[in-house]
Amino acid sequence: MKAVVVKKPGGPEQLQFQDFSKPKVENGEILIKVKASAINRTDIVSREGKSGYMANPILGIEVSGEVVEKGAGANIELGTRVMGLVNGGGYAEYAVMPADRAMKIPDNLSFEEAAAIPEVFLTAYQTLFWLGGLTDADTVLIHAGGSGVGTAAIQLAKKLTKATIITTAGSKEKLDFCRSLGADICINYKEQAFDEEVLRATNNLGADVILDFIGASYWEKNLKGINTDGRWVLIGILGGTVVEKVNLMELLLKRVQIKGTLLTPRSDAYKKELTEEFVSSVMPLFLENEIRPIVDRVFPFADIQRAHEHMEANKNVGKIMLKINE
Amino acid sequence: MKAVVVKKPGGPEQLQFQDFSKPKVENGEILIKVKASAINRTDIVSREGKSGYMANPILGIEVSGEVVEKGAGANIELGTRVMGLVNGGGYAEYAVMPADRAMKIPDNLSFEEAAAIPEVFLTAYQTLFWLGGLTDADTVLIHAGGSGVGTAAIQLAKKLTKATIITTAGSKEKLDFCRSLGADICINYKEQAFDEEVLRATNNLGADVILDFIGASYWEKNLKGINTDGRWVLIGILGGTVVEKVNLMELLLKRVQIKGTLLTPRSDAYKKELTEEFVSSVMPLFLENEIRPIVDRVFPFADIQRAHEHMEANKNVGKIMLKINE
Fold it and tell me: Which of A130, A143, A233, A249 should be substituted to probe chain B, the one whose Cβ sees the most B Cβ atoms within 10 Å?
């Protein structure tokens, strides 16, 4: 089968196709004939050789497709349309996945739509609810509102809570889209100081939950814009890694909770538990078209390099997909 | 009545006695004839004019004594021996307290012992369990093991969990005492690199929960010594406020949770809930002498300045008490 590996750490030009034999199915696993996969930031970090936690030489952490083989104890029918997280190996014609985290694809969704769900919706669910503890009375600040996780988080916050949703993005087009998904207050970070806007919108209290993909460059403004007892979930560092001069007194006085998280390196047990809760809490909303996967663009598998370039240009609204085994 | 206020922000010499009329009891409150109070770090911060959250001009945040008046709805008998947190006003001959957070003093404890309980044991309970989520399988690193909160946390971790307890302190005398309270591994931070000792004791994994009173000067070592998914509860900044460089990638990869907290400025509702859980989970252990308040020294009320100096010299093991209304 064809699959994508990294020649040597570097840019999109380092991505190349290589022939592999089909992965072997172990107990409790299924083999999926992959129909679609998606590009994630973590794939770029892996491509650059910086993640340090990817054991699989094949990139890609989520797929949709059809079950074509199953190991002992895998409780699922052959031929079932499924989607879910893989431990690497997603940019490939076939991929294995523990059966207990495969999600059945609702009939109203295509394979390309389905593969746009697992990583960003599970991440958004985990950060908003498991780590952020978002409640109806809260205000949530979702940075990078146009991103995959951003568009997922806005919808989840809107449909599962009565929280006030504030989002930031860098263009009117992205902000308009965020508003259409349910964001209450939309801030163009290039034109407005988001901390001031957040304070204005919250009677000077600040946001109770922050989803922060940005890191260092937003540190001061996040700290100013967070409420007492706020939960600040750090899930990316697009804006730099190192913060100069962190004042711990401010964390103490505001009783801020900063929670670093990544989904990909977590254990199989964690992913199973998260997937199960997500299936029962959220999947019905996809069937009812209350929540939808946001697909920015679908690339043919052969265009993997262009797909990576597209993400790094930061122009996407929602997910960048790969069509495989057409 | 006599009570202690701050002349102007500064050292212990700024503490002075002033005459006040007895506080008035509102609905749901009790008036306590104070028998003992205790010195806390937060009193020093308030004395220096740095806390910014003390509305009461009289210092002191915990007392023990007898109920001498009660407001409507206060469900407690006059004459009851009680202890608990006050919203300032603890360094005084009389103090008011919401009745719903007054704890009855076990018969086996004196007033001086009782007033050594509320602040440090409630703080230790809150940080270990509510914020730290300490479980039997965890390793907890308790800094400043000889301090009031440190001695309380070691005992609580020992009696309520099977967690491995590591503690740091600056003298053999303090470390021996920590060991007698239940600490499994005792590190002299003046002679040993505590991060290396923690890694050695945990098979290179690190501590799952850290109680950090120190802040900036311990930042790097705490980060090195914390386990993946570790909870790092920041409850003091004795070692400085500003961390020069914080690497967010390390927080992300280890999925560290940093939780700043203070007990004193929290709401009455929070203090009530915490007190109630503490009374049901921990108070029986005091009656059975399984856990005990650690009193370093009792000062006469008139010696308030010396009592503050004693805390600032960092020589105490356990709590520094004030005897009032002898």
Answer: A249
